[in-house]
Amino acid sequence: MAPKALIFILLTLVSTTIIHTCSAQTDKKFPAILTFGDSTLDTGNNNFLQTIFKANYKPYGKDFPGQVPTGRFSNGKLTSDILASLLKLKETVPPFLDPNLSNDELSTGVNFASAGSGYDELTTSVSGVILVKNQTQYFEDYIKRLKGVVGEEKAKNIIEGALVIVSAGSNDLIFNYYSLPTSRHQLNITQYHDFLLQRVQDFLKAIYDIGSRKMVVAGLPPIGCLPIQISARFKSPSNRTCLTDQNSDSQAYNSKLEPLLGQLESSFPGSKFVYLNLFDPVMDMINNPQKYGFVETNKGCCGSGFFEAGPLCNALSATCNDTSQYVFWDSIHPTESAYAHVAQNLKELLAKL
């Protein structure tokens, strides 16, 4: 072979390798994923708190790799884990409070959420979990540690480019407003929504000021369809239908949250906010279960499925044979199968960021 031809082939191979390498490096839309909120995103932070709101025991984690109960309130992975995998970032999103968290995990994102959390201080007043607004303190600690690992400039780029997901508010209604007469006597539901939304706004401004720019904020699911809420209202196990009044409350809150995010985007230079509609997809799973492969929609897989959650869903609880046929794992939290559909919907939304 002539020397010129050999040189040409070598140069072509090198160029192709460089192109492929650059392409692989720019494949990822986001450098990291950061999550804040409650049990729908908590991958195990509560394991390291003094609280009864934990899920680090069986049967939680029944379908997680290795059948390990990690602290996730589900039979397997959460939406954030599944989404991180879809985005080719990592297979699971680790809790920031894990003392064994490696430096390698930091650069692709962590979770700050805490099961049982909410925007209202009353929601967490006796539980020992991390109020949503206080999760910013751990976010700042994370950034300090990240800077020590990758340097200040790269840390800034990771934070600005990271996908931030915020999901909370359900506990404020379930365990506070609907359960405590004090809250209902002080504020009507419209006033309480406005109170929560002000807290949402304050929190989003706080993490924006710290450095976040790309944020997905989840609305409320159909709270009136959670098995525990149905059980609290209906006496007969055969009469289990969603509570229309509580679902209407969720919709009213969501109808204010979505335009609020648009206002914040206009007010915060360089920011992008995306509203994640949880209500309609979950209602569709409940109303059209066959479309998703579900069979059971109004009770959980753990125990009777009517009221078991947290410590009441434990190693002594019988579980269903096939979790993929259930929308709910326990009386509050979805199964991995349900979370997977939410993750797929969210992935499609991310084109807006």
TrEMBL record:
InterPro entries: GDSL (IPR001087), GDSL_lipolytic_enzyme (IPR050592), SGNH_hydro_sf (IPR036514), SGNH_plant_lipase-like (IPR035669)
Source taxon at top rank: Eukaryota
GO MF annotation list: hydrolase activity, acting on ester bonds
Protein name in the entry: GDSL esterase/lipase
UniProt entry keywords in alphabetical sequence: Signal
Similarity comment: family membership: Belongs to the 'GDSL' lipolytic enzyme family.
Record's signal peptide: 1-24
Organism this protein belongs to: Vitis rotundifolia (Muscadine grape)
The keyword Signal appears for this protein: yes
PANTHER family cross-referenced by the UniProt entry: GDSL ESTERASE/LIPASE EXL3, SGNH HYDROLASE-TYPE ESTERASE DOMAIN-CONTAINING PROTEIN
One of the Pfam families matching this protein, by short name: Lipase_GDSL
